[in-house]
Amino acid sequence: MLDEKRTVKASKFLSLVLRHQPERIGLALDEAGWVDVDRLLAACAEHGRKLSRAELEHVVATNNKRRFAFSEDGRRIRASQGHTVQVDLGLEPAAPPDVLFHGTAAATVPLILRDGLLPMARQDVHLSADVETAVRVGSRHGRPVVLAVDAAGLAAAGHVFRVSANGVWLTGPVPPQWLRVQPG
């Protein structure tokens, strides 16, 4: 089994190939982001990243962000969200809670309050249902600041929200008038 360091390294590599660069190891995701598990494992091995089925299952099961999901039959795998390659996760529109949260680095706040939240290279803006998750996300790039998003107001204005398999709320660009800095 993988130790913690190898588990994190494998998770980061899987994020790279299942969200951003499947071609890096000769893979092609289907339109919903799925790839055959056996093909993934073979491609990893062919590119010096040998991983057993048990190790892959360990990475999926222990990832605290639940970044990956197996198909119901266990024969395919995909990233739950965060793709920069075009995929349709088939997520149905969902009514969001009144407020959602977005964690970011303090240095980006003035730009966000001017331009709003943009998906950047990703397909969607990512929001969380709780402040704690937003703080963790924002901490990855410096001192975190949490923005509260008036999700109820956005939904009433016609914005569509979807929720991924791992609980991340997804939507299009969020104009600045729907944002406020969360005290804390």
Automatic annotation (TrEMBL):
Transmembrane segments: none annotated. Its EC number is 2.7.1.-. GO terms for biological process: tRNA splicing, via endonucleolytic cleavage and ligation. Pfam families: PTS_2-RNA. Keywords: NAD, Transferase. InterPro entries: Ptrans_KptA/Tpt1 (IPR002745), RNA_2'-PTrans_C (IPR042081), RNA_2'-PTrans_KptA (IPR022928), RNA_2'-PTrans_N (IPR042080). GO terms for molecular function: NAD+ poly-ADP-ribosyltransferase activity; tRNA 2'-phosphotransferase activity. It is an enzyme of class 2 (transferase). Coiled coil: none annotated. Removes the 2'-phosphate from RNA via an intermediate in which the phosphate is ADP-ribosylated by NAD followed by a presumed transesterification to release the RNA and generate ADP-ribose 1''-2''-cyclic phosphate (APPR>P). May function as an ADP-ribosylase. NCBIfam families: PRK00819.1-4. Belongs to the KptA/TPT1 family. This is Probable RNA 2'-phosphotransferase.
